[in-house]
TrEMBL record, chain A:
It comes from the Bacteria. Keywords: Cell membrane, Membrane, Transmembrane, Transmembrane helix, Transport. GO terms for biological process: transmembrane transport. It is a multi-pass membrane protein. This is ABC transporter permease. It is found in: Cell membrane. Residues 90-274 form the ABC transmembrane type-1 domain. The chain crosses the membrane at residues 32-51, 93-111, 132-150, 254-274. Its main location: membrane. InterPro entries: BP-dependent_transpt_permease (IPR050366), MetI-like (IPR000515), MetI-like_sf (IPR035906). CDD domains: TM_PBP2. One of its GO terms (cellular component) is plasma membrane.
Length: 295, 559
């Protein structure tokens, strides 16, 4: 018992600490975050199904007369129903953001763990090329790739995923470095367990805390990135219904038809605030096994 | 608090008394159930107990401090002579802070962690004096800094004061820690296992320093420890703690030599001694009269085939290893016979762990030969054959680090089986169950995770992992140094019986010479990468030839 204020020691004397997830949802901040994010995600997922019931239209491209107070929230400059486009426009954004995050996580975790575990020259080469990628601004890199390859969905996902990877690799590497000095890794080495198996069985389960935090953070960035690229006209292409695109299309008529901009802006804002709150509480839960116990 | 506490009164009235102290966790579970003890000037009270018994919590309560998540529920801590005779725990936090370091001070366990590595030691001591407002000028405080360094037996010239903590040895660091605690002439010092990380020679020096301070300057000491041999050496009174209660209290002689409580007897029985008079656990100590392992239960002695008895199982020849100019191992040669147990003794930095890792194949940077059954082993486990890997097994020092916290005990223990043979899931599980049985852990442990196990249980599980493949050589690297004495006794007992039952050889690496007669037939003493002494345990302990061994033996605290 060397460090007098170490909460872990007390926790050991009292009870085994609750799992990461329990510690997460004990925090009020996390509950709010989950509520906000879940509301937007549900809206985006169920929106397309609710379309006919909520608006009476089955298509997001129905053309009526522009800027009319038809339906609940009126029509946009091309006479399309704003509510229908809002309900139908979230799913793709979320899907692309999720896919991009997952791709970035897969690449980053793989590269980061390899670098930390192999060490030496491999580590040096991987991390230095990482630094080169980090030096490129995320959005500029995306713009470049999309102008060259065209604004398809897979390009969007890949480009955003790749720009995430170096940041995730950094986090993974530092988390892995802490774990591989533990004796159980040395024990696995001693029994000549294949290296990939050591990474999967022994390292990965022990770095899930920081990785979950990183996942949340990257998800927030992905949502922002997909929406901004759509806004710039490099993501989703018209006439697709999409929140980012909606903001761009409707901003010219902000005074006449404010809902077309406000609805998607609100949805994206609420979603990012929600995921950020979750990520923050997750980071706190991962760092401290006492979180939520005393309050 | 500007005036230091006067300590020259010769009264025996307690300077600090703890009355019916109760501490509970925030969730309501009580950790201390009414602890009472008194500290008298010039006397040292040892607070003895195993990890989790609440001894550190009680010690910190003397400073009016409770760790995060703990609340004080009842009882008082009376500090006399500090200007008020009230309850320390009734004071507001700001006033308690003023007392800490002034009237009452704390020496933490690990000096390397508790000193600021970026600050010169003289300045660190000076800082305490400045904060406490000791003396009237900076010159006064500088003079006191020099004085206190001399009081703990360190040099006090300006050059020494300008050193950084990393330029001092572990023992010197700990004495600087004590100097900081003693700088303002406190009435009470709380020492939390101050010698646990130190080797015996340094430990002796630190203990002497503490005893002198108590003697000359009438400081009351609370010495928190789990080492009863140290208690015998330093303490005037002893309080034994068991799960938050003081179960026995009294003068050292009485508690240690005429213990009343069962728990105290159990603790005392677990302390290894150099002479081997006591037996720890069920297997008797190895002394000259009983060189061969005797069997208390009257079972037949291990069946070692005729002719194999004297054969060398392990031969190490001219093992060398250097990192840059740092020669970690400088030509190590020794051999180990079939069924024999050998102790590899050395202080921290002597290269004993490196040596054991070279043998186990965890370190492949060495030059020289390591032979198993006169067959040379390749450097590094991955280069060795499956059979060679199976035959040499290694148990790590810390059971808190050697098991993957995310895997069940069964999953961890079956790893060697997975890697050496093609076995079905059921067969593996059966073998794991057998191994757990061997280390006296039941079937119920199969699907538990390490965090549900105590330190001793984890170490047993780690030993089970080494045993599951029936090795010929077991290398144990400081396997008991992270454990309490009573747990250490049971692990030593276990290893002895296992070695006895299976006839395997064992290399027992440790810094604790007191364990010698309890575990090994032969021993080698390692000093800065060289074997300075090699022979049967009796030869070495009774007729030590090398001055280093003699010095070690002279400094072992004994009951």
């Amino acid at each position: 018992m060397s460090v007098i204020d170490s909460p872990q020691i007390i926790a050991r004397e009292v009870e085994t600490p609750p799992g990461l997830f329990r510690r997460l949802i004990r925090q009020r901040q996390a509950k709010v975050g989950i509520g906000l994010a879940a509301a937007v995600v549900l809206l985006a997922l169920l929106g397309p199904l609710l379309l006919p019931w909520a608006t009476g239209y089955t298509s997001t491209e129905f053309a009526g007369r522009p800027f009319q107070p038809d339906g609940m929230l009126g029509t946009d400059n091309l006479g399309r129903d704003v509510l229908s486009r809002f309900l139908g426009g979230g799913l793709r954004l979320l899907m692309y953001a999720a896919l991009a995050t997952l791709l970035g996580m897969a690449l980053g975790v793989l590269v980061g763990m390899t670098a930390a575990y192999r060490g030496g020259r491999v580590d040096g080469i991987i991390m230095r090329s990482n630094d080169v990628l980090l030096a490129l601004p995320q959005l500029v890199f995306a713009l470049l790739a999309i102008t060259v390859l065209g604004p398809q969905g897979w390009v969007l996902v890949t480009v955003i995923g790749i720009t995430h990877a170096p940041r995730i690799a950094r986090v993974t590497r530092s988390a892995t470095v802490n774990v591989i000095t533990e004796d159980f890794i040395r024990a696995a080495e001693m029994y000549a367990v294949p290296k990939w198996k050591i990474l999967v069985q022994d390292v990965l389960p022990n770095i899930t805390g920081p990785l979950m935090v990183e996942l949340g953070l990257r998800m927030t960035y992905s949502i922002g990135a997909v929406a901004s690229l759509s806004f710039l006209g490099l993501g989703m292409q018209p006439p697709t219904a999409d929140w980012g695109l909606m903001i761009n299309e409707n901003r010219i008529a902000l005074v006449v038809q404010p809902w077309g901009v406000l609805l998607p802006v609100l949805a994206i804002a609420v979603l990012t605030v929600g995921t950020n709150l979750i990520t923050d509480s997750l980071a706190r839960a991962a760092a401290n096994s006492n979180t939520g116990a005393s309050k | 608090m500007s005036s230091p506490v006067r300590e020259d009164t010769m009264t025996t009235t307690p300077v600090l008394s703890v009355e019916g102290l109760k501490v509970a966790t925030a969730s309501g579970e009580e950790i201390l159930h009414g602890v009472s003890f008194e500290l008298r000037p010039g006397k040292i009270l040892a607070l003895v107990g195993e990890s989790g018994s609440g001894k550190t919590t009680a010690g910190l309560a003397c400073l009016g401090h409770f760790r995060q998540g703990l609340v004080h529920t009842a009882g008082s801590v009376q500090l006399a002579g500090a200007g008020q005779a009230g309850n320390l725990l009734d004071l507001p936090e700001s006033q308690r802070r003023k007392l800490r370091g002034g009237a009452i001070s704390y020496v933490p366990q690990d000096p390397a962690l508790s000193l600021n590595p970026a600050m010169r030691i003289g300045d660190q001591i000076l800082e305490v004096l400045q904060i406490q407002g000791y003396g009237s000028s900076d010159a006064d405080r500088r003079a006191r800094t020099a004085e206190v360094l001399a009081e703990v037996g360190l040099k006090n010239d300006p050059a020494y004061q300008r050193r950084y903590p990393h330029q001092l040895s572990g023992g010197q660091q700990q004495r600087v820690g004590i100097a900081m605690a003693f700088a303002c002439r406190p009435a009470v010092m709380v020492l939390d296992e101050p010698t646990t990380g130190l080797d015996v020679t340094t430990q002796a020096l630190v203990l002497q320093t503490i005893a002198q301070l108590a003697d000359r300057h009438r400081v009351a000491g609370l010495y928190i420890t789990h080492d009863l041999a140290v208690v015998a050496k330093v303490a005037d009174d002893v309080a034994v703690m068991l799960s938050g209660e003081v179960v026995e209290q009294g003068p050292t002689d009485q508690v240690l030599y005429r213990p009343q409580h069962d728990y105290t007897r159990k603790l005392l029985a677990a302390v290894p001694d150099l002479a081997g008079r006591r037996q720890i656990g069920r297997v008797t100590a190895i002394t000259g009269a009983q060189a061969v392992v005797p069997d208390p239960a009257g079972r037949p002695s291990p069946e070692v085939p005729e002719g194999r008895e004297g054969r060398n199982l392990l031969e190490v020849a001219d093992l060398q290893l250097a990192y840059g100019s740092n020669q970690v191992l400088a030509g190590i040669s020794f051999s180990l016979r079939q069924g024999e147990s050998m102790m590899l003794l050395g202080e921290s930095g002597s290269g004993k762990t490196t040596l054991s890792r070279c043998i186990a194949g965890l370190n492949d940077d060495y030059s020289g030969r390591v032979c198993l059954d006169s067959e040379e082993l390749a450097a590094g486990t991955r280069a060795r054959t499956t059979e060679q890997r199976r035959r040499v097994q290694y148990v790590f020092q810390s059971p808190f680090s050697s098991l993957n916290p995310r895997r069940t005990i069964c999953e961890s223990v079956e790893v060697p089986l997975l890697m050496t043979g093609r076995m079905g899931r059921k067969e593996r599980r059966r073998r794991v169950r057998e191994a757990l049985d061997q280390v006296r852990l039941g079937e119920s442990y199969l699907d538990r995770r390490p965090r549900d196990l105590s330190g001793g249980e984890r170490q047993r599980a780690a030993i089970a992992r080494a045993l599951v493949n029936a090795p010929s050589l077991l290398v144990c690297d400081e396997v008991t140094s992270a454990l309490d004495v009573s747990v250490q006794a049971s692990i030593i007992d276990l290893l002895r019986s296992l070695q006895h039952e299976s006839g395997m050889s064992m290399l027992f690496v440790t810094h604790n010479i007191a364990l010698a007669r309890h575990i090994s037939q032969r021993m080698a003493v390692l000093q800065s990468g060289r074997i300075v002494e090699l022979g049967s345990t009796d030869e070495v302990l009774d007729n030590a030839r090398h001055s280093y061994t003699r010095e070690l033996l002279a400094n072992v605290p004994a009951l």
